[in-house]
Design brief:
The chain is an all-alpha fold and 176 residues long. The protein has helices at 2-11, 30-51, 60-76, 88-106, 109-118, 121-174. The chain is built from six helices and no strands. Helix 2 crosses helix 4, helix 3 (60-76) packs across helix 6 (121-174) and helix 4 (88-106) runs antiparallel to helix 6 (121-174).
């Protein structure tokens, strides 16, 4: 059994052989983007359920299927642009927004914790919709920020090129 584990570990691709993403953490393919979305939804769901004490009060056999169900529902209704890649900081921000939204809808923290434990389909739908809304909002913010950074990068490159060209022309004018 132990040898099987070692063999599986040896079969994993080395970090050096894996191709880096196109730009930073952006996914390079639609599948990678979908994987990033699923990972984000999973982390978000687990974080929300943990903050609501739902995972402490249930057995492993109860909360794992419920979590998988919530993740599948969340991902099912989302279409996120390719390159969606939130980090832990962004997932934490989304979680805070989702919890704030859910506490508001259910009338406070204690009531939210209680209704989540019911595993009611209507409650699950409310949770899923809230997560979807906040994932979309964060995705839009990240896309806007990336576009803005790209624009400034382009402006700086053009400015640097223009300054270099101007300096070269001035030097040529002074050299006889």
């Amino acid at each position: 059994m132990e040898n099987d584990r070692k063999d599986n570990i040896n079969q994993l691709p080395s970090p050096e052989s894996a191709e880096p993403p196109a730009s930073g953490c952006e996914a390079t393919t639609k599948k990678d983007s979908g994987d990033q979305l699923r990972l984000c939804a999973t982390l978000l769901t687990v974080r929300v359920l943990t903050k609501c004490q739902a995972l402490k009060t249930r057995s492993h056999e109860e909360w794992v299927p419920h979590t998988k169900h919530l993740v599948s529902q969340t991902v099912e209704g989302l279409t996120i642009p390719e390159g969606f890649c939130p980090d832990a900081k962004h997932t934490k921000k989304i979680c805070k927004a989702v919890l704030r939204d859910l506490r508001k809808q259910f009338g406070g923290r204690c009531m939210l914790e209680s209704v989540i434990l019911l595993q009611d389909p209507v409650v699950d739908t409310v949770i899923v919709k809230s997560m979807q809304v906040h994932i979309r909002q964060q995705s839009a913010r990240l896309a806007k920020k990336a576009t803005s950074q790209s624009l400034w990068k382009d402006i700086l490159q053009v400015s640097a090129f223009s300054a270099g060209l101007l300096a070269a022309l001035i030097l040529l004018a002074f050299i006889p």
